Amino acid sequence: MQLKDAEATLGQNNVQKSSFVKVEREGRIPQQDIYPVTEGVKSDYTKQVYKDSFNRFLRHIKVHDLQVLIDFGPKVLEQMIIKYVIHVRDIKNPPLSRGSIQAECGVIYHFCEMNDIVLNKKKISRFFPPDESAHDDRLYTGEEMQLILSECNKREKVIILLMVSAGIRIGAISKLKVGHLQPIIKEYSTFKIIVDKYSKYATYWTTCNYECAMAIREYLEQRNKQGEGPVKDISPLIREHRDPKDIFRMKTPRQVKDAAIRYTVREVLKRSGVYTKKKQEIMMSHAFRKNFKTVCEESGMKSLYVEMLMGHKEALVKSYMRPKDAEIIQGYTTHAADALTIDLTNKLKKQVEKLESERSEELKQLKVQLIEYKKFAEKTAAEINNLKATRGLEHYESSKFLVDPNFSNIVDAINELRSKNGQDPVAIVTPQEAAEKEESQISNTLHQRN
Q1: In whole angstroms, what is the distance from residue 292 CA to residue 297 CA?
Q2: DSSP H/E element including 206
Q3: Distance from the CA of 291 to the CA of which of 240, 414, 438, 439 falls in 20 to 30 A?
Q4: 62 exposure class (CB count in 10 Å sphere: 0-12, 13-18, 19+)
């Protein structure tokens, strides 16, 4: 009886198999799509990171056909991932930390999720090494940042200050174009910077302080003088480093690669003596971005504005508030711009410009007051002369008093202006003193007539 059942079952399987083959030959069953590891990833930089990480895994398991990888099934894939974890944990020199292994496995998990492969992640995580990091990485100090900036040329200074004052990721700097910088109204003397302009999902904008804006202008001016000519909007903001004597290459700027930006930052840190091999102490480039967030928050800037300037879209999604660009720029300029300035000379330069602007405005107001005072003085003198003519006292000296209740304020303003110009202040004659002087002169005159 059992044998007959088995034969019946086998016969049904053969019929189903033959039917499946027949349908497949007729082309009525579409092939399953295979989604690459970069599918669903928004940032171009993150796509490249995912691609490099997944290729390391494929090279280790010696499989390069994604269809073959999927056909292995979940159980076999789990074993492959576990062997890869053991390799990078124990055999690879230097071995990867727990966080790095989690990042590597996260890329593999993403590929499996996109292709409907369910893994036992909890089982795989049992093979991760213990977390030995203390998470006590620190930021660069003010003195260290000054040392770093002192070792920079104009090109390197722009790279460093974009991370410090604008909070831009190091991976986004190489893609910036000159046209991505939009000058903001004169009172701020800075730029609105469009980051990841050509990414449909990750585009955002940020701004920078006066120090960074001046460094950008000086760098572009240097390129102009070295033979590139007027820098166009389509030109890369950070171009490949070329010998200024090579006129042809100077006139055709090429976009710098991301690896070159990272190398440049590393070399500047080495020259300044700030670079350390202890990654746990300072994150080489990301510490600048962490410093941006820390300084902005501590200076009193709204947290939502900070997250938006850093390109964290999650903050805006979770909030019902939709602030205007001008409000964010005002908040940044008021609270964080000066705190993010590294070079003290730039701080002093901005303060001098502010004082000169205030003084210029003050001088304009004083000139207006002087004009009004002159008109009032002429009108008052005419009234006094008319009054004397009616009393028959034309031959007496005209009194120099005014009856304007704001006369003392005007005189104080005039004296302040005269003091700034190195002149002696004018004497203030109150209306009462002028009247007493006038009566005394009239009394003396009458006494002499008698």
Answers
A1: 9
A2: strand 204-207
A3: 240
A4: exposed
Q: What is the pLDDT of residue 320?
A: 73
Residue 405: cis peptide before it, omega within 30 degrees of 0: no
* Residue 97 to residue 278: CA distance in whole angstroms: 13
Separation CA 244–CA 256 (nearest Å): 16
Angstrom CA distances, 2 to 6, 8, 12, 14, 92, stand at 6, 10, 15, 18, 55
Given this model, what pLDDT does residue 120 score? 94
**Residue found by looking up tokens 């213990």 in the block:** 130
What does each C-alpha distance from 298 to 206, 305, 335, 340, 407 come to in angstroms? 18, 13, 9, 11, 47
pLDDT of residue 387: 57
- Closest CA relative to residue 228, chosen from 171, 284, 178: 178
How far apart are the C-alpha atoms of 210 and 215, rounded to whole Å? 9
Q: Return the CATH number of 142-342, one of 1.10.3720.10, 3.30.930.10, 2.160.10.10, 1.10.443.10.
A: 1.10.443.10
430 contact partners, CB below 8 Å, separation of at least 6: 401
Q: What's residue 442's pLDDT?
A: 67
Pick out the chain residues at pLDDT < 70: 1-31, 132-136, 185-188, 197-201, 276-280, 314-319, 346-355, 357, 380-381, 383-418, 420-423, 426-435, 438, 442-443, 445-450
First to last CA, the chain: 163
Strands laid side by side in the 181-183 sheet = 181-183, 191-195, 204-207
The ranges assigned to domains in the chain are 1-28, 44-125, 142-342, 351-449
**Strand-pair category, 181-183 with 191-195:** antiparallel
For residue 258, what are the CA distances in angstroms to 171, 218, 249, 308?
Answer: 6, 23, 20, 24
**What residue type is 328 in one-letter code?**
I
Question: Which single residue is written with the structure tokens 């107001």?
Answer: 365
Q: Quick one: which of 341, 348, 259, 336 has its CA closest to 305? A: 336
DSSP string, 65-99: -HHHHHHT-HHHHHHHHHHHHHIIIIISSSPPPHH
Instruction: Give how far the C-alpha of residue 24 lies from the chain's centroid of Cα atoms, to the nearest Å.
Output: 56
Both structure tokens of 313: 């879209």
Output phi, psi for 422, to 5 deg: 75, 20
Q: Which residues pair with 219 in a beta bridge?
A: none
